[in-house]
């Protein structure tokens, strides 16, 4: 496994900051995010997989840590095979584009229309896949510690969820509904919209609410919680029972992280 020297929080902090600002400002702010640390590689043949600039960070917990809610085999395949493939294919897509290799991941996926047309779709799918999974791992933790599973403790996040949805229970119902109604593969999200309000949205495939021009403007915002509802995320353990996976997943949600995401996203809207 290739280890990324970037930490998860720095990816995500930068992501939150960048969403709100204009594209030009995003470009200017791009120096501290998920960066291409590598030097411009010599142009590799498109058939080989370049080693960078993007890398797969290790999971922030042991792969068996989310048992029994998410099984170790699923975690190992999901992270080591699926996520790794997104990273490899993203590197491959930009292998012949030295300038793009210096950009942050948020910069690449935030406005895909800036990309050469022939790599737009591969970057959308694989850059989205890399961002979404890096984010997803950070939102979970081994159950049993304060802030993991259950409901968020009293915090600006909990108060805003209560204010926006009526209760945490009602929020969870709305979120699970978005996860269940996503036909085929995709994600359910809790986002902070540009005006600072919470919303539950869903995207197809590896799209996410940061992608302007791809995701309808009404569904755009800074993700603070996201759930992968691709079958690869649950099929080994839950087979066709997506609802059981969604129900079990709440037991490993890291509310401490979601609360941090919320506060940073709100700060970025001001
Ligand atoms: Mn996945």
Percent of residues in helices comes to 40-55%
Q: Please identify the top-level CATH class of the largest domain.
A: Mainly Alpha
Largest sheet: 3 strands, antiparallel
Helix segment count?
Answer: 10
User: Ranges with pLDDT <50 over ≥5 residues?
Assistant: 1-45
Radius of gyration: 18 Å
The best one-word shape is globular
Describe it for me?
- There is one protein chain.
- With 270 residues, this protein is mainly α.
- It folds into two domains: 8-138, Orthogonal Bundle (Helix Hairpins), CATH 1.10.287; 156-269, minor pseudopilin epsh fold.
- It is built from ten helices and three strands, in the order αααααααβββααα.
- It has a three-stranded antiparallel β-sheet with strand order 2-1-3, sandwiched between helices.
- A hairpin with a 5-residue loop joins strand 1 (186-192) and strand 2.
- Helix 1 (8-20) packs parallel to helix 10 (255-269), helix 3 (72-93) packs antiparallel against helix 5 (117-138) and helix 6 (156-165) crosses helix 7.
- The protein is globular and about 50 Å long.
- Mean pLDDT is 86; it is low at 1-45.
- It binds manganese (III) ion (MN3).
- Manganese (III) ion binds at residues 78, 82, 133, 228, 230, 232-233.
């Amino acid at each position: 496994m290739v280890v990324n020297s970037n930490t998860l929080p720095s990816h995500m902090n930068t992501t939150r900051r960048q969403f709100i600002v204009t594209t030009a400002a995003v470009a200017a702010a791009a120096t501290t995010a998920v960066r291409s640390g590598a030097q411009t590689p010599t142009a590799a043949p498109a058939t080989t997989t370049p080693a960078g600039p993007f890398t797969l960070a290790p999971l922030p917990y042991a792969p068996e840590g989310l048992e029994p809610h998410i099984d170790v085999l699923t975690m190992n395949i999901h992270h080591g095979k699926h996520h790794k493939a997104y990273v490899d294919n993203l590197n491959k897509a930009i292998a012949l584009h030295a300038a793009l290799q210096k950009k942050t991941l948020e910069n690449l996926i935030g406005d895909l229309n800036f990309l050469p047309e022939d790599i737009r779709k591969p970057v959308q799918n694989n850059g989205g896949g890399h961002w979404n999974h890096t984010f997803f791992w950070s939102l979970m933790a081994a159950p049993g510690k304060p802030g993991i599973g259950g409901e968020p403790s009293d915090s600006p996040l909990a108060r805003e969820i209560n204010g926006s949805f009526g209760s945490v229970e009602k929020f969870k119902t709305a979120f699970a509904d978005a996860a269940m109604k996503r036909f085929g593969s995709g994600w359910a999200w809790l986002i902070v919209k540009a005006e600072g309000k919470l919303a539950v949205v869903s995207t197809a495939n590896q799209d996410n609410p940061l992608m302007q021009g791809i995701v309808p403007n009404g569904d755009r915002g800074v993700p603070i919680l996201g759930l992968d509802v691709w079958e690869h995320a649950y099929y080994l353990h839950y087979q066709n029972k997506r609802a059981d996976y969604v129900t079990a997943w709440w037991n490993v949600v890291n509310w401490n992280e979601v609360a941090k995401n919320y506060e940073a996203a709100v700060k970025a809207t001001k």
